Amino acid sequence: MHYFLHMKKVLLPMFIGRLVPVLGITLVFSLVAHSSSAQLATFAYALASLSVLTALTSMCLSATGNVIAGQGQGERGAQQVFSSGLLLAAALALVGTLAAMALAQTLWRLPGAGHFDLPYLVNMAWLYVLCVPFTIANVFFQLFHEGAGFASRCATVRTCAAGISGGLLWVALWFFSGRDFALMAMGYFFLSECLAFLAFIRLARQRGLRFKPALDAQWAQQILFLGVPVSFGLAGQKLYFYCLNERLAQASIDLVAQLAAFMNIAGLLLIPALALSQAHSVYVSKIAAGRGTAYGQGIGCFLLLMLVLAAAAVLLGEPVVALMSGVTLSYSPGLLAAIMVYLASSGFLALVMGHLRGMNDTLRPQLIVNLMLFTLLVPVIYCVAPATLGIMGYVWLQSAALALMGAVLSVRVWVLSGRGRF
Question: 280: Cβ–Cβ under 8 A, 6 or more apart, which residues?
Fold first, then answer.
């Protein structure tokens, strides 16, 4: 299939399937910020601490879409991938849940936890633990169905789950406030993931897939061979954000809340680039030749997307910032510039890594990214950057590091496309 025909078919559903959950999370953060901004830092800290484990386990399945797109054996191959992936998802859900329970029980020992109300922080953490097994399973279901050509159905599932959960939380705002509402907001994740889980099971049954976990060594090995490095890389990025939260908490609790509000806004605007990255990656998995040309086409689409996002940010930036951060962040040209630079650097890195994942190359790129994070960026943040730098300064440092990572990995794409591995 031609690159642009592929994008026309799958990009919008993949975009919706990723946008809607983020809109739900954005709604949660916004409602907490407006209901009780004092609880936003606690809410963000609990999520940042536990999401490391969720990323580590769920992203082991992140290559499922690439595997199913490139398997080329029809329904028989799809059933084998589904059975193997289902078994892997169940095992990872168990491991992830047990690890999250252990962390929630010992959360009070983390260095930054002393800045918060510990019993309240621990209660928030335990509420998040409820959603962990469903989150991990849903990563497998969504990527499997998308890779098999059911991206539109996945978008519908995510839209309904987030819409119902968000609507109930909005109603709860009329009856709860402050600390009680922040706890209700944490329950959003359990409800939305549980609803999506049930809908994904229904979709699998409608497709005639059998829920008989059976380990096929070939498919299980391929899923893990590509997915475990992605898990390692994403967990490293989550660990970096935990380190950054710790650094900010040492300076001021307000900086933790400002970072949460900034990432809330940037995360929403980054969704189109992440959808483009996944759609591009699936296309690269399907083709055996012309991957260098596909990379150039992907860069062209990415540049066009950045122009559209920049125009939208200029036109709608001020009301979006006010809606999503309350009084935590103030709109300014400097904030707008920081958001756009962060989007460009993060989106570029996501596209490059998606292309490499489509070429079955995940280990070395993730090693490169994490090496640069923890040998360059973290030392600068802890040892060089002054405590008075402010949240925008930390964002600019991170954006520069992400752009450098993308440039390094672009060289790797060029090498793999034309001159063999290195």
Answer: 7, 294, 298, 301, 351, 354, 355, 358
For residues 141 and 143, what is the distance between their CA atoms, to the nearest angstrom?
6
**By the 8 A CB rule, do 53 and 190 touch?**
no
Q: Tokens at residue 51, please? A: 């999401």
Cβ atoms of 409 and 353 closer than 8 Å = yes
- For residue 304, the enclosing domain spans 3-418
Structural domain tally of the chain? 1
Q: What are phi and psi of 343, to 5 degrees?
A: -60, -45
Neighbour tally for 407: CB within 10 Å: 13
SS3 percent helix, strand, coil of the chain, rounded to 5, is 85, 0, 15
SS3 call for 1: coil
> Is the CB of residue 265 less than 8 Å from the CB of residue 321?
yes
Q: Which amino acid belongs to residue 289? A: A
Residue 34: other Cβ atoms inside 10 A: 17
Nearest Cα to Cα of residue 54 among 132, 116, 113: 132
Is 278 exposed, middle or buried, given 0-12, 13-18 or 19+ CB atoms closer than 10 A? buried
pTM of this structure: 0.79
Residue 287 has, within 13 A of its CA and on its CB side, a CA count of 18
pLDDT by position in tens, the chain (length 422) = 588 888 888 888 988 988 888 788 878 877 887 777 667 878 888 887 787 788 788 888 888 888 887 665 566 767 888 888 888 899 999 999 999 999 888 877 777 677 777 788 888 889 999 999 999 999 999 999 988 888 889 999 999 999 999 899 888 888 877 788 888 888 899 999 999 999 999 999 998 888 876 777 777 788 888 888 888 887 777 778 778 887 887 777 778 888 888 887 888 888 899 999 988 988 888 776 667 788 888 999 999 999 999 998 888 888 888 877 767 788 888 888 999 999 999 999 999 999 998 888 888 999 999 999 888 888 888 887 666 677 888 889 899 999 999 999 999 998 887 654 43
- Rounded Cα distance between 300 and 384, Å, is 36
Largest separation between any pair of C-alpha atoms in the chain = 63
